[in-house]
Structure prediction request, 97 residues.
Amino acid sequence: MKNWILYVFLLIPLISKSQSTLNLDEKNGYKEFKFGTSPTYYQNLEKNKNQYSKNPDIESYYYIGTEHTNIANVDITSIQLDFYKGKLFDISIGLGE
Prediction:
């Protein structure tokens, strides 16, 4: 009986539906900002002059466009994109009034 229960628990992951990994990389990011892309891929970026990281491989930009104004009726105050060696690795979204 215990073996039967063990087999059931081992089979559950095999028969359950999960997200496909085929398009997972294409979906990663926020709106049109996708991880792994270059800053030259985007318009309306302004270089962050007060970059918090002293790492020379990290560049930080602010999105200054007007397309993204809220998330679930909460105003977006800023969108910061950080690039490591020219590839997007961090998206920070400021929310508030």
User: Anything to note?
Assistant: Helices lie at 2-15, 24-27. Residues 49 and 60 are 8 Å apart (CA to CA).
